[in-house]
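Example record

Each entry pairs one chain with its bound ligand, pyridoxal-5'-phosphate.
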Amino acid sequence: MTAVAEVAAGWPRSVAPARPASMPLFPTLWPSMMRGAASAAGLPFPLTDPGRREFSFARYGIYAIARALGLEGREVLFPAFFHCVELDALLAAGAKIALYPIGADLQLDPQAIADRIGPRTAALYVIHYAGFPAPIRALRTLCRDRGLALIEDCAHALLSSVEGQPLGSFGDGAVFSLPKSLPTPDGGIALLRGGWSEGARRQRQPRRAWLAAHTASLLLANLQMRHLPAAAEVRAVALRMGKAAYAATGAAYVPMGTPDFDLAQADTTMSALSRRILMRQDFATIVARRRRNYRYLLERLDDVAPPIVGALPEEGCPLFYPFRVARRDAVLARLQAQSVPLGEFWPERHPMTPDGEFPGVNELRATALWLPCHQDMTQEALEWLVLQVRQAVLGER
Ligand SMILES: Cc1ncc(COP(=O)(O)O)c(C=O)c1O
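Structure tokens for the complex follow.
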């Protein structure tokens, strides 16, 4: 029996799980979330924090924080494993970047950071990868002792806490990217502990065509997931029309998660529609489902697609299940051929990360992938996902 046949044969159900109609990589927008009364009561941190500023994307919040902290021309210690757009936001604000190492296990060593602090260092930038907390208390102490500003990148870490305190509440500045965790078409939140020195500025709304296309896409992804006939085709047309309408306005097309930082959009605020959708979320259920789904994947994939971080911390809200595989590109190709939703965990090596200097980061970029564990994943979808990953990895051994 081949390895692949063994996986299928060993499946604990009498029938192998059926392919779902579609399985989105990010949460979808349920039509009910667009209807009915909405109230801000019960919104979690940081969504009602009086010191917050709202942006269309987190990247513009990072830029605003860097400017408010006066980081132009000053050095920021920055993790050597990163997406790209967060670095571009700091560079656009004029910060000078010095990298610190991240291990192949996504962990950082506070001592390695301390060793890099020099006379020009003004701030430390920390990413809570996939919603798993960095050792934020130790880092806050280090920053206080050495007179540095601490910026928490919580783009992945909405709803995660440590010992009862939410991530994003430790730093002098913090930023959140809502559409990664929630079905909002846009939304970045920036916090500044010391307050924003300049008064409230008038911010522009995101373009209507862009917003309409993204909202339609999120809604149609939901209908597609729930087997509505022709939802996939309608979704593709809606996105194409939205992109064309947006391009006609002369502005760059910047969907969520793209690497582009566009200074011309730095003053766009979060849409009223996203604010409304936020008020229709059941946050406790979102956390519970994400935690449950992560544990489900961990238990069933530990032997073939081991997690990069491992066990879920008590108050962590995972954004996804990051795992490592030796033959990453081959496994990725097999899974993509089956339309398995799968994220690439930043394989591109940025020119700022010189070869050899950060072996842990090189290993991550060569081996890391991620699977969704969001609130819309059903038991059947998870079962199918696990089977696909097991087959793909064992098929490459
Ligand atoms: C770690 C990190 N920080 C910041 C961002 C920027 O978020 P946004 O797409 O909302 O600008 C991203 C986007 O992928 C990210 O991965």
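Residues 213 and 240 are 8 Å apart (CA to CA).
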